[in-house]
Specification:
The complex is a heterodimer of chains A (498) and B (890). Chain A is an alpha/beta fold and 498 residues long. In chain A, 30% of the residues lie in helices and 14% in strands. Chain A has helices at residues 16-23, 30-39, 97-102, 146-149, 168-177, 187-195, 254-273, 279-301, 309-314, 323-337, 358-382, 455-465, and strands spanning 77-82, 121-124, 131-134, 139-142, 155-161, 205-208, 234-235, 342-345, 389-394, 398-399, 402-404, 418-419, 423-429, 436-438, 440-441, 448-450, 474-477, 480-483. In chain A, β3 and β4 (139-142) form a beta hairpin. In chain A, α2 packs antiparallel against α8 (279-301) and α10 packs parallel to α11 (358-382). Helices cover 43% and strands 3% of the residues of chain B. A two-stranded antiparallel sheet of chain B has the order 1-2. A two-stranded antiparallel ribbon of chain B has the order 3-4. Chain B has a two-stranded antiparallel ribbon with strand order 5-10. Classes of the chains: A alpha/beta (498), B mainly alpha (890).
Amino acid sequence: MNNRARTSPTESPPTDRRGFLSSISGGVFGAALASLLARDGFGEDAEAGKPASGEHAQRRVYDLQPRPAHHRPSATGMIHLFMNGGPSQMDLFDPKPLLDKLHGKPYFDKIAGEVENPGAAGALFRSPFEFARHGQCGTWVSDAMPHLAGCVDDITVIRSMFTTNLTHEPALFKMHSGRMLSGQPTMGAWITYALGSVNQNLPAYVVLDDPKGLPINRTQNWQAGYLPPVYQGTRFRSTGSPVLNLKRQFDEPDEITRLERGLIGKLDDLHRRKRVGQPQLDARIASYQLAARMQLSATDALDLSQETAETKRLYGIGQKTTDSYGRRCLIARRLIERGVRFVQLFIDGQIWDNHTNIATAMKSACDRTDKPIAGLLTDLKRRGLLDQTLVAWGGEFGRLPIAQLAGDKSDKTAGRDHNKNAMCSWMAGGGVRGGLAFGETDELGFAAVENRVSVADWHATVLHLLGMDYEKLFYLRNGLEEKLTGVLECRVVEEILA
Amino acid sequence: MVFGGRYIFLSTFFAGVFLILLAQPLRAEPSFETDVLPILRANCFRCHGEKTHKAELSLTNQARLLKGGESGEAVVPGKPQESLLYELLRDGDMPPEKEKPRPTKAQIETIRAWIAAGAKFAGGKIETARVTQHDVIPIMLLRCTVCHGGRRREAKLDLRTRASMLAGGKSGPAMVPGRPQDSLLLKRIHAGEMPPRRKLVEVSIKVMLPNEIKTVSRWIAQGAVEISDPPGLATGKPDPLVSDKDRDFWAFHPPRKPAVPKLKDAAQVRNPIDNFILRRLQAKGLTLSPEADRLTLLRRAHVDLIGLPPTPEEVKAFLADSDPRAYEKLIDRLLASPHYGERWGRHWLDLAGYCDSEGIQHSDPLRPFAYRYRDYVIRSFNNDKPYDRFLLEQIAGDELADYENAKTITQELYDNLVATAFLRMSADGTFANITGFVPDRLKVVDDQMEVLGSAVMGLSLKCARCHSHKFDPIPQRDYYRLTAMFKGALDEHDWLRPRRQSGEPGSKDRYLPFVTDQERRAWQEKTKNLKGKEKEKHPQPLIRALWDRGEPSPTYILRRGNYLTPGRLVQPGVPAALTDGKTPPEIKPPWPGAKKTGRRLALARWLVEDDHPLTARVMVNRLWKRHFETGIVATLDNFGRAGARPTHPELLDYLATEFVRRGWSIKTMHRLVMTSATYRQSSKVTAQAERLDPENRLLWRTPLRRLDAETLRDTLLAVAGRLDLTQFGPPQGVKVRADGLVTSVAGPKGWRRSVYVQQRRTQIPTILENFDLPRMNPNCITRPVSTVAPQALHLLNNAMIHDLAGKFAERVREEAGDDPRQQIQRAWLIALGRQPTSEEREIASVSLEQLTDLWVKLLENGADPKEAARRALHNFCHALMNSAAFLYVD
């Protein structure tokens, strides 16, 4: 075992009572509970279940109380704009003049093992989009994203990311949890596990998924894995009741509901008084009280009628193509404003999975998201929130420089197949340099070649910006120090820090 | 402590230190023989010496040092910062912490300087090792044999051995030893023709990497050297990887029956379990708590054994039974209940990682016949199948008896095959080409090893997939020996995909047609007059199974767990730490003429030997955990050094030896545990005991427990009178509402018990998920017990719970009439199996009255006055279903 001292905010596998304590902090009840437990003297350390090496400070209560970071954070909250499907780097941020030149030349044999659908593989394929330099920095952006092009001075585009699998499911798991399989804690779970949250009446980790449907891998994209369940993401739907069962699903006068809840309260109080020293029961009562508080807070956070018409316009709310994503972007800002630690946006299906018709299909993905995202960046900035909020954009992999041909084998309907060797992403806000395009792919955009950024590097960088050291953030499980970045070598990409 | 693990992270941090060292003036070049070797001898040889080769590494001479260990090269001449030997010494990771002696800083600097100067030896350079068939065969398996191997032999070519390569195929010999340029094999590879590019994904393989082509080329150039296979276990020599000292740990020794402790005050003792518990309690000045009252015991026993509340009739009968053995009779009645298997079978299904779907991809395809395994488990528990037999069937059922040539498929033959689905349960994306490559398959194998290790053996085997275990004496070799035991059935180079096809024996899928004759006849009868689509509705009945196919490919250690870096060949075997290290498992075909290796049968037989150090202990500990919320060993899946130590080691061994002595009968163990005074205690907390043992590790009371997901749902349905108790068969389906709420679909008789609801990975019923039904990954050893807001919201606001409360209220009215006092009594009896206390009755009647009054006020004039009472009772029953008393068991 290694014998360096660790100043980790983390601890040991939940067993016996600790296992129980880990569990009682249900979402928003941490505050009430932690003090309650401290009073009961349950804050003391316990010896059972401690690993044989027994050197780690034990965390006794798994809750969402705000916790100090490892170092001074550049960002106190994060919005992750996840782009399901794998946006095409050479059609968005990574212009490849050589592709124009070699358009139509065969290339498949050189990359055969890297093509998911060999039967449909075509020749090298130029981008149907026009590129130009934008902002004072001159970052290249294609004409598919006119609004974001106006924000490039605030963002770092990473052109040299790569991942390890070219299939959606494992690649999504990789982006969200660092591993290519399910059952692992996601990045949001790690972040809230480490830092807790400022707002105790809202979940610390909110997921805004598309009302049209769940993304691939569904709710596994925001699971807590082996971390205590209190750290899993909570879905807020942007229309209707934001949380499952948040509101009564049956008609009943409010007075009746109040009376019935009073009855539950009385019965539970009596039940607890007969059972002194059973903290589960206190926790449960707290959970019922706090469920009610959450009902109010969540409803308020999602009430967009409090926003001005100008703000709504900025996000594209009210316009057909941008309304849905615009609402989610605006809700994201309202949640971050209220101290929610980590907000993640999903979009239905896989709008960036442009196997065919890249010219039109990818454009429509841009049309739905470009204005809302630019609106979010602008709004955060003018409210002074961008400095402390990390905004990250990206998908699970990139796309190939060769065409994927549809049945008619024509260029017009061609798209691009998955590519794990190169993908693009960007970051903006808290602690990130503005106006930078980082890293290079090869001349055709097939693989990242210079300043390569792995998914683990990206995770390490995100953690760093939020005040954490990726090597110190671990969870002891079965004698192993489990980490978001796993056991593979990685680094904080210092070059993109402000 | 061994090479491997975290050293990579350290390199950046220590780069600075390295630079500082570089800046210092260098002394004369150190010599290996006079300067380095003595340092290694003093500090390293105890684990990496002549006799002991931890992590496959020995540092005694030039050849061994250059060969390196399981993590790769130990020394890279000229590059100390890339040399594991230096890096681990420098960072203090080696020798392992607390071990002495340790090298001084100056000595470590000597090693650095020696490596920096080129790591020279007095004897000069030695020849690099020859390439042998064991370097080449793994490459052939990985890239070629799917089409040119045992099952498919395209162009009549088989590339699995040197001989078959020489024999060649249609176009002649595949290679000419000594002449790579004339070897067809290499020509086709170099030309980019093989493997054929457009077919790669179809067969889930990838092209050969440049270093692999180089290896094949060098092998042929050197004359295609073939060496004899390294021996397996029975060498007679001491094992260089696992020593007797390593075995010296409590969990690796067989359990021995301890003497039952004598107590000064044995008044509380009901059976020997109490002696063990009381001895430790009394030593601390504690005793057992008083026995819980009868109805508390009734509810506790019901929840523990069958997961359903006692009915009012059962409460009445139990109270009326004046027999002093009434409690013992209750336990017998519950153990004989057909619902016992549903409750305890579910616990086992958690360990197996039971699921009705494959997972991995979004489509999450269903496993149509997985439910047979679920039913098998439930029936086995109900029949009290001896645990040793239960394991034999699940690990090696296909090797227990010949089913292919059986005249009739009996229930026993059927059970044998169905049971093998135990190791077919992990999430498995290999149904699709793109998620069916070798690493995907290895992940499935790894998951199944984890299931075996965590569920049956209580060992965290999976660590040893990538490097020798950090805490336990499980070298990486032993992990691969164990996977070799499964190779006849789980072979990443000869893989059966989880697809349903014809079901004919030999077809490339995972289904066998050997259902019982009775079921087959019934199916034939049913379908004989059907045609077309009608007939398709009744597909041929099949069994999802795991079976040995008789031709395992050889097993190579995968260095760092990476399929691209195969290491040496290993033979099938079991973890050496659990054996004497000398006796190999006896592996032979299970019956004369069997086309099976018999490997898993040998493994299973070894696991259920009476004196196996772990099997019985792990199982009785699990049983204990289910009755007392915490195991005697708190880490149920880890009895190793990193696991918790038993709180009552003698009790654990007493239970383990009793278990074996009483024929591995699980029901007997329930009886023993549940009739102890320890189990029958009250759950009440007392201040003094709380102070002395706040965690209740000594068991001075019974822990309070929360209903788990299934028990809560089943209880809600039972109380509402909407539980359909139909057993077995295809699962009840689920539906997903637009907002994401997942519910099970009711049949004509109501909702079935949760164990019979479809377990699709992507569609877990929301109520079960909210109350901690786990995602199987690959299995679940201990469920967390969370107390989170969505639980309260679900019980309070969900429409189905509200409806069930209405049904509950109707039932109360039917059984108790219109008198509110009678209604309250009855509601308590149905929901909680007891009468309300006077305080509860007071709260209840006041609230029911207030609710009725308010409803009268709210309902429009002219409404039926009974309607207000009806609605008030509905609210009242809803509140009871939401109460802590409903959710928690004393």
